[in-house]
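Supplementary Methods S3. Complex input for the magnesium ion-bound model.
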Amino acid sequence: QAKEQGRNTVHYYSLTLNQSCMSRLKLAGLLQNALENNELTLYYQPKVCLKTGNVKGVESLIRWFNPELGQVSPADFIPLAEDIGLIDSIGSWVLESSVKQSKAWQDQQLNLSIAVNVSARQFQRGEVAAKVVGLLEQYRLSPDHLSIELTETSFMHNAEKTLSAIKQLSLIGINVAIDDFGTGYSSLNYVRTMPLSQLKVDLSFIKNIVESVRDRKLVQAIIDMAHALDIEVIAEGVETCEQLKLLLEMGCDQAQGYLFCQPIPAGQFEKWLQDVSQAHISLISHCQLDG
Ligand code: C2E
Ligand code: MG
Ligand code: MG
Ligand code: MG
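Predicted complex, serialized as structure tokens:
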């Protein structure tokens, strides 16, 4: 799978389409205990502002290290967690851990907002907004230090509930982004109905913008549409200087990708922020000049 490429550090346990039911069952069994066995952790990937080179926010991305399986990709286990009813407990853990981390960074005078992935399935019980409000109060975190990325990893059975939760979150000042924009089940309908702050253009659209005029025009159209509606655009999966140069020309607002930084643990990220992030201001101008 394309998403798996470019990761050089860990060997991934990967599910194939013809996986046996046994392996799924086994994975489900191991996932049941992952939380209490402390096998889950969050990694962070910066979102780089293309106008200033600054990092205003990071995305939290869940990681599962199992002693038997090694590292399992969230692309494999999040859909499974949704299917077997574990997404609520895992999702709550992700939310609370992200809020805690965000608060810790505030206390260190690091002005970062953490974006949390929330799957459509999590909205079905209708408790996400209340949970977020409770966590912000508990950790005394202001809403601009947390944002939500709505992923469409599952078919939206209850769009109404999702919409009302998104509206509540937006009212209390939480920014909402649509993730993987363009690949989803009803992307334009989201744009039409939801109070969105950001669109994240799926990396599959970014992948070929250098070679494909068609893809480039499509991304430009997404950017123009979003800007007309006062929505910011983030490009996902930016890996090369050539891609960055084009995105700068197109007026894209932010970028995320291996070109800047892979998802890494919080401590490593703090170090990256100190050591490397200044280099991105020059990286951006370098790409602008001769990407
Ligand atoms: P996503 O939210 O769209 O996250 C972006 C994915 O692209 C991440 O994969 C990230 O590691 C990867 N990525 C970042 N930069 C690059 C790049 O330059 N090139 C390439 N090829 N890939 C890049 P990851 O971490 O494996 O996560 C996969 C998906 O799993 C996420 O896609 C998200 O939908 C889901 N996910 C991850 N963490 C959570 C979570 O805490 N909760 C929920 N509900 N879903 C999550
Ligand atoms: Mg995301
Ligand atoms: Mg995405
Ligand atoms: Mg994705």
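The pocket of C2E (ligand 1) is lined by residues 3, 6, 45, 61-62, 73-75, 78, 91, 94, 117-119, 149, 151, 153, 179-180, 203, 236-239, 256-258, 263 (CB under 6 Å). Confidence is low (pLDDT under 50) at residues 1-9.
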